[in-house]
Write a structure and sequence with these properties.
alpha/beta; Rossmann fold; GMP Synthetase, Chain A, domain 3; 2 domains; 3-stranded mixed beta sheet; elongated
């Protein structure tokens, strides 16, 4: 299994190199890869990097106080999250705490350069291998045996040059969390507004079905939230009413509903039924 090591800057590169040498000692089936050039100095998603990303299943982003705010770090984190399962993208924090992380990086489970956290990272890496995963006992034994080597390598990482890292204010972190929550709330409210919008056309469609004595279809539609969306007649159901979604998607009932739309509106709508996620 390939693991993509992302880095930028002298110290970040030293950390990536240490992980590249160390990880295969613990999990032999893992093949770490890192670019030979600093992406921040011009490589930026060359064809070589793109090819490696297509073949990788796990990404580790080596974060230090010096590159935490670098635009490319945030860009690459976002790109990795689109290519891989988010649980398989890990910011590796050196000289930082999870509370220092901001932007796109906060969506991932960060690993501090400490024994307990690195062990969790290795366990996650092992799970990502699926059928090739080592037994927990073998993995823990290998980790305990090789951890001192990584610890020594990390202790050899050069001392930072320049001003110390700026820690985040509590107010800034709270505001960021609030903004995330508000964005999710706005999305949910928009969905509810669309779903609950009064529609005389929807009532007329149901009335047309009633006139044709299609009462079972009307009952099934009433169990969901129904609205017109362009060329679609959408019906959204709560998870506990999923059986009604199956009912109206039967060919005869779907045709009856779409025929009623054409009769009432003078145009045929396509039925689209769904199960609500909230």
């Amino acid at each position: 299994m390939k693991v993509f090591l992302s880095w930028s800057g002298e110290r970040s590169r030293a950390i990536a190199e240490a992980l590249r040498e160390w990880i295969p000692n613990v999990i032999q089936a893992v093949q770490p890869w890192m670019s030979a050039e600093d992406i921040d100095k011009g490589l930026r998603w060359s064809s070589e990097v793109a090819i490696e990303l297509e073949q990788t299943r796990f990404g580790i982003i080596c974060i230090t106080p010096e590159n935490l705010g670098e635009p490319w770090i945030l860009f690459e984190a976002g790109a990795l999250s689109k290519l891989l399962d988010k649980s398989f993208v890990c910011p590796f924090l050196f000289g930082l705490e999870p509370t220092d992380v901001k932007g796109p990086l906060i969506q991932f489970q960060a690993t501090r350069a400490e024994k307990a956290d690195v062990k969790k990272l290795i366990l996650t890496l092992n799970r990502a291998q699926s059928d090739s995963a080592l037994s927990t006992e073998k993995l823990e034994n290998a980790f305990e045996h090789w951890w001192p080597e990584l610890e020594k390598a990390l202790n050899r990482v050069p001392v930072p040059v320049g001003k110390p890292k700026a820690t985040r204010e509590v107010r800034e972190m709270v505001e960021e969390i609030l903004e995330i929550v508000r964005a999710e709330t706005r999305d949910r409210e928009l969905f509810q507004v669309q779903s609950n919008r009064p529609s005389s056309d929807v009532n007329r469609i149901k009335a047309a079905l009633e006139a044709k004595r299609k009462m079972m279809i009307v009952i099934a539609l009433d169990k969901g939230t129904m609205w017109i969306d362009g060329v679609y007649l959408r019906v959204d159901y709560a998870p506990q009413h999923s059986k009604y979604k199956t009912d109206i998607e039967a060919r005869d009932k779907r045709n009856a509903i779409e025929d009623a739309c054409e009769e009432v509106l003078g145009r045929r709508l396509t039925l689209r039924a769904s199960i609500s996620e909230w």
